[in-house]
Amino acid sequence: MRINAKSLAPLMLVALSGVHQTISATTLLENVHIIPMTGEGEVLKGAVLVNDGHVLAVGPSASITVPAEAKRIDGAGGFLIPGLTDMHNHIDSPESLKLQLAYGVTTIRNMWGTDEVLAQRAAEQAGELLAPDIETVSPIIDHDPPYFPGSITITDAAAADDFVRDLKEQGYTALKTYELIQKEVYFALTKAADRYGMTIEGHIPQAVDAFDAVLLGHDTVEHSMRVDAAIVAPGTTYSSAFRPPELVRLVERIDAGEMTYEEAFRRDMLRALAGLMVENGTALVPTMGVYEVLSYSQSNREAMAKHPLIDYVNPVYKGFWLQADPVEELTNEGVKAEPSDAEIASLEYFASTEHGKWVAIMHEEGVLILAGVDAPNPGMFQGFSLHDELGRMVSRAGMSNYEALKTATVNPTIYWKIEGQRGVIAPGAEADFILLANNPLDEIANTKSIQGVMADGQWLDRTRLDAVLKEVHEAYAAQAKAMEEGGEPAAGFPVHLHGAHE
């Protein structure tokens, strides 16, 4: 379940070479249907005036005073939505940033902080790099030995204050807690984070109950981690590890008709947890797509090898997507063998439909839901897979198309307390948009009908977006060939892959 992306060179500051378009300070996107995300179902026919990377005016074309020198872009009657935010992503190469923009993702929350990411963030903020807006958590924080090589470790609760203060001074605002942190150390980290104004945005450690974590101020529950252990029927033997053998046995009992999912995973406990999350301002990043890695089996690997986007995956990680060897799980109790491939496949309903029902209940109870993908985990394509995640918000979590869009536009700004600055098309907001051929309020899959992307006021039309994709394809092909010939992997970052182990 873990890899060490060893010998990876630092990520260089690379803009979209060959497709970076310099435009005039003022731009008018006209002849568009605007979905401003300021009210459900609201669609405005008209134009958006942009200057210096921000929205100046929105409304009917006749109501907007347009400077003579403004560049005009004809939206051809398309639908304009705010750029999307991926709230759980791992930058794995310069190409991954290009793929985000190519698919309309204009903000990402990077979930493994490094000096290189901090440099990327600074370059983007200074206007030196055309890339998504980058928010980042700290390096992964864990016990020693850690779950993933390359994590930073802490074993002494008394050291938590200095540990957190140092991360704050490095420029981080959020802590990425992880699997094996001991309970007393986690408690100390939450206190120190509160003292220094930092959030806790990583995994709830295996040693900590989800209810306790929320009460202690854990700000985001990632991948619904520890939720299953918190709501499993009392008296059930169940481990808090990823894909525990006990889960396989429990699903076997459900499939045999001995009990139902509702009896195995208590809805009243789930609603109680949701209520506590609302009360404490804890958000859920369910990553429904990557949760399905719980059931990522041989049939999935065979299908993925034929996926039309498989060559747009960093070759360093593509091999892990397609590997067939069972792997091991590191837990607080030691190393446990993973279930067999057949047992993994049996978890498909649990990993998709059952988990989707949990997200639906959380949403119904008022928990703030944030869309995230966790690329480059198996099946999670940089940029593209966020659109599939929005589809799951509708098909599995029962959201309306508008509510699904909110999880990747408005909701992240609510979480970050920057409402009105991103995620909407309104005066004063950042000029991050996607121009679509079709209305996503009619069908959520229409978010994939991308005709152009504006990032920080810079316009990338369909021709330029296709050039971005071509550039990424060629770069990865060259990298794969070099690796086949014994060369070192190209630039990248350490990335944990659920279901892969080295």
In short:
This protein is α/β, with parallel strands linked by helices.
Care to describe what's here?
With 502 residues, the protein is of the alpha/beta class. The protein is built from 18 helices and 18 strands. Strands 3-2-1-4-16-17-18 form a 7-stranded mixed β-sheet. The chain has a 4-stranded parallel β-sheet with strand order 9-8-10-11, covered by helices on one side. Strand 5 (84-89), helix 1 (94-102) and strand 6 form a beta-alpha-beta unit. Helix 1 (94-102) packs antiparallel against helix 18 (462-484) and helix 3 (160-170) crosses helix 4.
Short descriptors:
34% helix; seven-stranded mixed β-sheet; 502 residues; globular; 18 helices; alpha/beta; four-stranded parallel β-sheet
The mean pLDDT is 90
Protein structure class: alpha/beta
Distance between the termini: 8 Å
Kindly provide the radius of gyration, computed on alpha-carbon positions and rounded to a whole number of angstroms. 22 Å
Number of contiguous helices: 18
Largest sheet: 7 strands, mixed
- As residue ranges, the low-confidence spans are 1-15, 17-24
Physical arrangement of strands within the biggest beta sheet: 3-2-1-4-16-17-18
Number of strands: 18
| Percent range for β-strand residues | 15-25%
The gross shape turns out to be globular
